[in-house]
Amino acid sequence: MSSPLPGHATEGEHSFALTFPKGKGYADQWGRAPEKDWRGYRSLKCDVINPHGREITLVLNLRDQLASNLGDYALRHIKPLACAPGKNSFTMKLTGLKASNADYTFDLSCLFSFFFTVQGEDDDVTLYLDNMRLSPR
Q1: Least CB-packed of 18, 22, 32, 71 within 10 Å?
Q2: Contact 19, 116 (CB under 8 A)
């Protein structure tokens, strides 16, 4: 696979190709979150490379252990990331993180999973997630 931008890795320890055939499905490279206790962090940061010639909305979905145990899909945090063509950098505040569709505050001591979808796409979409990291700031 060729790199969408010079110097950008498309696959590696901290870089993943997120592919959505006809804009469907979800990207879950990780299963459960590799580091579950996020209490010591204040933000989640990532870079997304969009090789398409138009803006693509990548959607990050987060669930904690209680939401997973209850099987309540409303108890997830949904974060749309508007990705312009090229490199995009995002920072998401974690303190006080709430579910998007319910009055529920996340338990950051036990994040269960995260996955990505795209919004409003009918064509094949591939985006490149790079350097997703937890930050104490």
Answers
A1: 71
A2: no
- Give the CATH number for residue 21: 2.60.120.430
- In this structure, are residues 75 and 69 in contact, taking their beta carbons and an 8 Å threshold? no
| Ranges of H-type helices in 36-127 | 65-70
Element (H, E) at 93: strand 86-93
* Backbone dihedral angles phi then psi of residue 21, each to the nearest 5 degrees: -65, 125
**Digits of tens for pLDDT over the chain (137 positions)?**
344 555 555 555 567 899 999 999 888 755 555 567 888 899 999 999 999 999 999 999 988 887 777 777 778 899 999 999 999 999 999 998 998 888 888 888 888 888 899 999 999 999 999 988 889 98
Whole-angstrom distance, CA of residue 56 vs CA of residue 92: 18
H/E stretch holding 130 reads strand 125-135
**What is the value of pTM for the model shown?**
0.83
Task: Report the candidate in 27, 55, 48 with the shortest Cα–Cα distance to residue 120.
Answer: 55
